[in-house]
Amino acid sequence: MKTNERWSDEFLSKLRTESDELADKYLRLIMADNEKSGVRKLFATMDSNDAVPPGDHFPELAEFFQLTHNLPPGTDLQRIRRGELLFLKHILAGALVLLAKSLPEGYAAPNLSQILSISNDLKTHLYKRLLGTLQLVLNVSCAGGFEPGGRAVITAQKLRLLHSGVRYLADRFRPRFKEQYGVPVNHEDMLATIMGFSLLVVEGWRTLNLGLSKQDEDDFYYVWQTFALMMGIHPPDEPSNAEYIPNDIDDAALFYDRYRSRHYVDAAVNPDGVALARANLNMLRDMIPRPLRFLGLGLIPRIYMTELMGDEGCRRIGITPVWKHVHLKRILMKIHDLLKPLERFDERDHIRFGQTIFQGMINKAYDGRVTFEVPTTLREVRRIATEKTALHPHHH
């Protein structure tokens, strides 16, 4: 099948009827004794970012974890390592693109924003939700994530069960969703989410003129292509069949163009998406120290959003693009040139630097464990960033 014929409406609509049947089957085991407490335990114990194998929490799911812990046959680990290192080299630009493009752009699709807004987390636990997403990206993109028992492997297993729990909740809290949009967290929407963490990051890196080669881009995409298969995005009962997943970065762009045209809508008919985008923008603005905001630099997040998503992309999620401030825009787009010397670090330095950046921004590290219990107030984010090195390693 030609690539440009592959992403037909007929094929993509079929993907909307399919999801992760294996995870759903095992979710029913968790809920067998007591539906509500089973789902509550699932979210309480799986919403964590430590490296504890999920089977320690749910021994009754040993078979699920056994079935899902292997990498797809023929996985090229050398290529994955190249993709991981590329992300760590450009980790600051990667975090910026994720928060100012990948996440907010996806809110333009109500089939995504309605599911994301079920828990109201982005209004009540803004930092936890958004920075927790950055943590997910680090788990998948960090060095060694695809080794046996690595963070990418464990994250895929946890997310499959969590998404199954989301489907259960959506049936109750969004009863009309299935009729309008298909199965909640279906294969098409899952693919689009994976593209947000891979293709849209690459597009943002291009806008920031990082000078990546086609091979660089494809190697980074390959990390997420592999993760997509481990997330259960495949035809029923064919866990090694990658026919649902774009072949390379160019094919990913063709898929996402079709996805945009099928699902992106105007702000006026997507209140959930607008609310999520506003919360996202507020968080970015709050991360700028108040004195700088008084000097007018509170516009920086909107400038980056305008540059990375374009005027139409911003308006679609209810954000007013920034037209003026040409000199400030020019400076911001050149800032990344100052980071070029970091690319000469050796691999260990990149790993150390990248993880330090993310820990300062996202994590509390107690006894070497990192969890999704990320800061939920700006004051806490700043305190961790400034005091992290002073924390006693056994501080509780």
Structural features, described:
The chain is mainly α and 396 residues long. It has one domain. The protein has a two-stranded antiparallel sheet with strand order 1-2. Helix 17 packs antiparallel against helix 19. The longest helix is centred in the middle third of the chain and has 23 residues. The N and C termini lie far apart (57 Å).
Could you write a compact summary of the structure shown?
By secondary structure, the chain is mostly helical. It is built from 22 helices and 2 strands. Strand 1 and strand 2 form a beta hairpin.
Number of domains: 1
Multimerization status: single chain
Rg of Cα set? 20 Å
Low-confidence stretches: 363-396
User: Class by helix and strand content?
Assistant: mainly alpha
Strand-residue fraction?
under 5%
**Mind summarizing the main beta sheet?**
2 strands, antiparallel
Strand order of the largest sheet: 1-2
How would you describe the shape?
Answer: globular
Mean pLDDT: 81
Number of DSSP helical runs:
22
Order of helix and strand elements from N to C terminus: HHHHHHHHHHHHHHHHHHHHHEEH
Distance between the termini: 57 Å
Kindly state the percentage of residues in helix. Answer: 55-70%
DSSP strand tally = 2
